[in-house]
Amino acid sequence: MAEFYDLNSERPPLAPQKPFLGDDKSLIRATFILGAILLAWKFYVALISHVIWEEGHFVVSGAYLDLGYPDIPAGFPWLARLVTAIFGWHVLPLRIVSLIIATMMPFAVYFMATPLVSHRNALWAAMIALLLPPLSLNGTVFYPEGALQVLMALMLGCLIRAIQQDQVKWWVLTGVCAAVGLLVHFRFLAPGLAVVVFMLANAQGRKLWTKPGVWITAGVALLGLLPSLIYNALNDWPAIQFHVLNRPQFKPDPGRLLSYFETQFAMGTPVFFTAMVVAAKNGLIRDRDKPESLLAWQFVVILVFYGVQTIFNKKIMPHWPFMAFIPLLPFVPDLLENFMSRAVTQGRRYMRMAVIATAPLMALAVGIAGTAYQWAFVHSAELPYALREHNILKNENWSLLEPDIAAADARAKERFGPDVAWAANSHMSAVHMEFPGSGDSHRRFYTLDDPNDELTRFVVARHKWGLDMSALLQKQAGKGVMLAMLEPSYIYHEADKVAMYTKLCQNFEDIEPFRIVALPPYKMAVDFYTARVRTHPLTDISGAPCAFFPPAYIAHPERGEFLSRDDTGNYHGAAADPMGVTAVDVLLDGKVVTRARYGLDPEAFRVPDMLKYDPNWPKLQYDFKFPAGSLTSGEHKLSIRATRTDGTTFDSDARTLYVH
């Protein structure tokens, strides 16, 4: 196996071998066949996948034409606006556009490779682009990743030609690709950073500083960043606040670096990733005086850039470094052919072919697993409960809420008259219900200053659109509102959530809980309310219960949590009532299984002031353990029942709990 890593060694004399997949025409035919199969496969995935919140975000943002948006440049919202203007407020046309963009990837890789390698190896590089999961799986949703990768390959292809030929057209086209990339996402700054590092660290790169073409490229590229710069300068730099100040969680952990490279190694497949590492070594050392050295620097800088962030930033997403897999694709075919051709016997040759074959097989496995996962998520409600444990993405089907939205709206109009506004807790929740919704491009939800909107700075956009909390309070004073609120997991335990809901209680009256709807696989729920906006907000809400704060609260276990039959965990929550609570019972499927210890006031957490209406405040918490034998395999409903001092009771909302 050690020989596998020696991909640069000279080849021993071998008998002539027939080219794999025949001549170039046969290879082209095979590439197109594979591309067609992938296109059909990804179209199927696009058809069955739930709408992700980013798709709604791009569409709704694009409806408000601007130079930029708090978290992203304007490119994809502008594209979404164009597509929806032509094809309507539907997700499928957007995904078809995204699929078309992703389908350009092998052509872009071929364009990048042709100045550097033989025609056949360029064709093979295009084929490998179809087999490499980080590149081949794009296009099933309307998301920028595929566009970023295509633009990077085109930019590098133009830049290599510019370095080789020093013609103005290639410098300009390099800048155009970079400008469009910067208009799509800020992550396109990473390839630009790699170019700068190449121009500082490499002797050949340092010569570029004196070439006028480089400055032409930089000037054109800056045009793509200019709209975002203007938008941010006029709006107190929300992108800087989000991406640089708010989003990072600086918790140094070197262990995450290992996990980061393990993920990239697996997603790139061991064979292709190893070949790229060898190609990077060649570019940095052996070929450092050739243009291909630039591509090695791209691979290294992008991987290291995100790798260093991983140590300190808990929020690095696995797909952010995927652009690093593009630059060295032209050199992978020759390295793998060299590895295979060095076999001294036919048997060893077959063994090496088998090793190389693990790459497309792993890619196939990733594709099948991803498709199965999407199918399983779509059918969460029908699947055996045990399989729901693997639904780890927050990608529920929000369109299932349409009947509930209509019913809650009808109830609000029944209570307060026809002039009813709609509100959601956050921008993420709002765009889920605004797009595609019922296909109505005019449907809008106000948002309620959710802490996450403060973090992401979506409050900036919602304020500009007249859809934030202040606009709602001003426009709907004395009028009705239907509220759809993503249920917080720990409403009493998180200070920012307490502050948000306290503000809601101060600004709304006649609050009526309408219903709670859990979406499959039942790990999240949306709480519907109807209420009226106060004309004069309250200052103190502790004198009486506010319906936004549940009187019977389960902090843990969470919705949709999986427990074992012999679980011994300690679970907790709180219960409050103006009459006072004397006992809390724990119910499983409507039957009492144990009585909780009630009246706790641990120093680690104190219940907030708005529960002072209970005479026993602050001793309002409880904890419990499930008795031995009370948990049986299956899907269950967990709730608590609180007993008042007069003997009457009230229950919490029942939540799904799984036992395996």
TrEMBL record:
TM ranges: 27-52, 72-89, 96-116, 146-164, 170-201, 213-234, 265-282, 294-312, 356-376
Predominant location category: membrane
GO-annotated biological processes: lipopolysaccharide biosynthetic process
GO CC annotation terms, alphabetical: plasma membrane
Keyword Transferase annotated: yes
Residues of the Glycosyltransferase RgtA/B/C/D-like domain: 73-231
Protein's membrane topology: Multi-pass membrane protein
MF GO annotations: pentosyltransferase activity
Subcellular location: Cell membrane
Protein name: Dolichyl-phosphate-mannose-protein mannosyltransferase
Organism of this sequence: Asticcacaulis taihuensis
